[in-house]
Amino acid sequence: MPLEYSYLVASIILFSVHILAEAVAGNLQYSVKDLAGARDQLPPPNAAVGRCKRASQNMLESLIMFAPLVIIAVETGRANETTAMGAGLFLGARILYAPAYWFGIPWLRTLVWFAAIVGIVMILLQVLPFTGAA
Cα separation of 80 and 57, whole Å? Predict the structure, then answer.
């Protein structure tokens, strides 16, 4: 399996961790009775639940860009050292991003978000037809 696919699988596992963290935070704030229903009348989420929800949403938005680019790079034969490095940078940054967001570490969160975007751009530049990459 190409290294880029391994990073993609690990990113999907990381997204599962995001969802689990969001569920745990929600269960700490709301009662089982509240969560068993339609959740129409839940009070607003506390700061921890809100951060977990926003981190999950941001991970989803990032995966929507990352996953297709990885698949395109591998399936078109444009995967190379740069795409592997970009995918690794994306995953590493996203691993750091989650706790930075959950625990409210603003500048670190911004820095690792940017690093993940750089990883996505590294892959993008390899799959663009006019770059001559690969």
Answer: 29
> 112 falls in which pLDDT band (50, 70, 90)?
very high
pTM for this prediction: 0.89
Q: In this structure, how many other beta carbons lie within 10 angstroms of the beta carbon of residue 73?
A: 26
Q: What is the pLDDT of residue 38?
A: 76
Give me the mean pLDDT over the 99-120 stretch.
95
Q: What is the DSSP string of 42-76?
A: PPPP-HHHHHHHHHHHHHHHHHHHHHHHHHHHHHT
Helices and strands per DSSP (H, E), number in the chain: 5, 0
Sign of CA dihedral 87, 89, 95, 98: negative
> What φ, ψ does residue 132 adopt, rounded to 5°?
75, 10
Which position has the token pair 């751009």? 121
CB 3 within 8 A of CB 87: yes
